[in-house]
């Protein structure tokens, strides 16, 4: 069996099955066995269904290879560690650009597609300032706030990640194809959908959990009461991420969704410093000069890890007493310090030191 093909085939099952697949994979069940079981449960009277899924997955992998698209399966060490902590992580992430960007400290900036000039300016400025201080900016490449955030990060010479509701070779909206190419240069355009998948309305709410899942926090810039940005905020809360919001004009009604978040306890954002403070990061920069620095010997997370013995998030959470979503930022910090390393399947291993 080919694990990549098995995992890609799992992604072709209906979305309501994905959480069951993730639970089984976390429990150590081989991807091929998970696929066989779920395919049989989905279509018990169609023995050819599993083979058809595998054939479609093989075609998707071939299309990706021909187009220079990287497939990162769930069990690969390059798979973004942040996504391993969510309830239904994609079994495969299809990526163009720089896959390493997916493991950067990141903040999502989302908001209205029909954004006001004020919202566009705020989104671009926040993204610029955060990117200049070392954070990656995650958004959805949509019109309005999303594209302004991507452009702000690019203008700062920083990293930005676009999460699509289509295959990464089917840029939507089409007028953002040039912007997607700019993102490729230092960041990444990603999707859980196989190459060739056209955009569809029901894909966009699904991708919002990935936008929040890749991020330490979600910042909402101008959202009405029915905005898709509120879905991203809800996903962030379910995943244990921070939610922040930018206040707006109370007379127009364009920002009632963000104001509702503020009433419910979201932190108000007036500058990038507000976001950095909420995340407990130094305003002068993120992670600068930290790689290779020794982690504090008393760190309780390190005490839960043994050199050479990988552990997954659930095991570390049980030993440390921390929830998986709160644990993840600590693990990423230790990784930046060079004290631990990620291995396949979202596991971490302590790095033995000789001095």
Give the secondary structure arrangement, pairings included:
Elements: H1 3-11, H2 18-26, H3 31-42, H4 49-67, E1 70-73, E2 92-97, E3 106-111, H5 117-132, E4 136-139, H6 145-155, E5 160-163, H7 177-186, E6 188-191, H8 203-213, E7 217-221, H9 228-238, E8 242-246, H10 256-263, E9 267-268, H11 272-279, H12 300-303, E10 311-312, H13 313-320, H14 324-337, E11 340-343, E12 347-350
Parallel strand pairs: 3-4, 3-7, 4-5, 5-6, 7-8, 8-9
Antiparallel strand pairs: 1-2, 2-6, 10-12, 11-12
Can you tell me about this structure?
- With 355 residues, the chain is of the alpha/beta class.
- The longest helix has 19 residues, at 49-67.
- Strand 7, helix 9 (228-238) and strand 8 (242-246) form a beta-alpha-beta unit.
- It starts with a helix and ends in a 5-residue tail after the last strand.
- The chain has helices spanning 3-11, 18-26, 31-42, 49-67, 117-132, 145-155, 177-186, 203-213, 228-238, 256-263, 272-279, 300-303, 313-320, 324-337; strands spanning 70-73, 92-97, 106-111, 136-139, 160-163, 188-191, 217-221, 242-246, 267-268, 311-312, 340-343, 347-350.
- Helix 1 packs parallel to helix 3 (31-42).
- It folds into three domains: 3-97, no CATH class; 99-279, 3-Layer(aba) Sandwich (Rossmann fold); 300-350, Winged helix-like DNA-binding domain superfamily/Winged helix DNA-binding domain (Arc Repressor Mutant, subunit A).
């Amino acid at each position: 069996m080919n694990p990549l093909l098995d995992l890609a085939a799992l992604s072709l099952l209906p979305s309501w099955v994905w959480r069951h697949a993730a639970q089984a994979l976390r429990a150590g069940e081989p991807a091929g066995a998970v696929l066989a079981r779920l395919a049989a449960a989905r279509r018990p009277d169609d023995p050819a269904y599993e083979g058809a899924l595998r054939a479609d997955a093989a075609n998707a992998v071939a299309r990706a290879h021909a187009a220079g698209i990287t497939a990162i399966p769930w069990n690969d060490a390059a798979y973004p560690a942040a996504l391993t902590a969510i309830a239904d992580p994609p079994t495969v992430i299809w990526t163009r650009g720089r896959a390493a960007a997916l493991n950067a400290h990141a903040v999502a900036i989302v908001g209205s597609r029909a954004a006001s000039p004020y919202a566009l300016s705020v989104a671009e400025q926040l993204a610029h300032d955060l990117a200049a201080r070392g954070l990656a900016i995650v958004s959805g490449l949509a019109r309005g706030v999303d594209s302004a955030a991507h452009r702000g990060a690019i203008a700062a010479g920083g990293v930005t990640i676009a999460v699509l509701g289509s295959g990464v070779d089917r840029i939507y909206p089409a007028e953002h194809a040039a912007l997607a190419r700019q993102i490729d240069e230092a960041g990444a355009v990603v999707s859980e959908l196989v190459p060739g998948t056209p955009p569809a309305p029901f894909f966009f709410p699904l991708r919002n959990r990935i936008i929040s899942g890749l991020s330490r926090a979600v910042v909402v810039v101008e959202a009405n009461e029915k905005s898709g940005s509120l879905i991203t905020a809800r996903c962030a809360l379910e995943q244990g991420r921070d939610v922040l919001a930018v206040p707006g004009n109370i007379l127009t009604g364009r920002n009632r969704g963000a104001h509702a978040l503020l009433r419910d306890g979201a932190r108000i954002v007036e500058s990038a410093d507000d976001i950095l403070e909420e995340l407990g990061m130094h305003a002068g920069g993120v992670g600068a000069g930290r790689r290779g620095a020794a982690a504090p010997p008393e760190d309780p997370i390190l005490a839960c890890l043994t050199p050479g013995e990988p552990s997954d998030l659930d095991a570390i959470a049980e030993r440390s007493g921390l929830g998986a979503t709160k644990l993840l930022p600590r693990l990423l910090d230790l990784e930046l310090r060079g004290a631990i390393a990620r291995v396949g399947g979202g596991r971490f291993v302590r790095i033995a030191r000789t001095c």
